Known about the structure:
Belongs to the glycosyltransferase 7 family. The protein is an alpha/beta fold. It has helices at 2-31, 34-40, 51-56, 60-63, 103-110, 177-194, 216-229, 250-253, 296-301, 315-325, 355-360, 362-365; strands spanning 147-148, 164-172, 198-207, 236-240, 244-246, 266-267, 271-274, 279-282, 291-295, 341-343, 378-385, 390-396. The longest helix has 30 residues, at 2-31.
Amino acid sequence: xxxxxxxxxxxxxxxxxxxxxxxxxxxxxxxxxxxxxxxxxxxxxxxxxxxxxxxxxxxxxxxxxxxxxxxxxxxxxxxxxxxxxxxxxxxxxxxxxxxxxxxxxxxxxxxxxxxxxxxxxxxxxxxxxxxxxxxxxxxxxxxxxxxxxxxxxxxxxxxxxxxxxxxxxxxxxxxxxxxxxxxxxxxxxxxxxxxxxxxxxxxxxxxxxxxxxxxxxxxxxxxxxxxxxxxxxxxxxxxxxxxxxxxxxxxxxxxxxxxxxxxxxxxxxxxxxxxxxxxxxxxxxxxxxxxxxxxxxxxxxxxxxxxxxxxxxxxxxxxxxxxxxxxxxxxxxxxxxxxxxxxxxxxxxxxxxxxxxxxxxxxxxxxxxxxxxxxxxxxxxxxxxxxxxxxxxxxxxxxxx
Length: 401
Ligand code: UDP
Ligand code: MN
């Protein structure tokens, strides 16, 4: 008798569990729309491998148990949230801008099919970014410091303050001088001919003591600290390698070439055409290096970049772990048919050997290592306003690893 009772209760329990599973499955398939997924983003990150194991088979998923219920990490967005979080004030859109700006912009507004942006790739152009007398014509509309503010239509109720202000933060050292020339020419002509509903500045942050290895994290943190202190009202920062420029077909890039911040960090450069190798490459689905657009408050929330990575590699993976750990997901446009960005030729950097050991304890350092202690680790030596960019020179405390 007792046995029959047991079987009865066991079967009832099993049936209830089944119902629960089916209910959840059906329910979740109805509710997995984009905005909910963002709220649901609760990545869990606990180290599960030693640094030695990581070196053997490097994959961010292997290092941290990241719960990818955060759909966006690997999901293409299409046009679903394209304009949701772009302008602070929606009435200030492209139509609020003054169309008399210049013919280039006018053409792109009137005839979206024509591409007024065509990448310029001749590095022997007689342009020295550090000499304002050599500015090419395409940079004529800029204000000092590589600042661009769209002119607003006099009849529309729209103030410049209603537009997003985007600051491009570009880590740099002199070995990439040729890249910088082409970067500035291409970025300004792309941004001005195609994207017009935000103001922007290009801020180049240069490491001047190159006898110690390049430290991208310290440069970016120094640049953001400078922005905060100078009270420049940046809503959105775009962390941008100096060797990446938008591909041909600027107007056709649409969402894939749209730098404006979204609700969550927005990674634009998973697919890149490498000019030196003459081939296209799709990076792994967890890459956040290259070009990352994110809200200033999110950058502050993750405590910026780690300051510990010298030489090439893993500082971006560390940053990604920081984002997951503070409940930020990564959004991506779809890959599209052709790469939206091209990598300009440069010598490759030597990978750092210590990067994996830092990566394996990234989480434990997040609070103390970043924007919060950059003051002790790097010094801003100069701030100059050239015509096509703002130039910060930074001395990174010398360490050779
Ligand atoms: N960078 C630099 N000088 C260096 C190394 C890197 O200015 O010696 C900057 C530059 O903006 C570059 C970015 O850091 O685009 C990323 O480095 P790199 O191009 O070497 O990495 P990749 O993405 O090609 O692996
Ligand atoms: Mn590169």
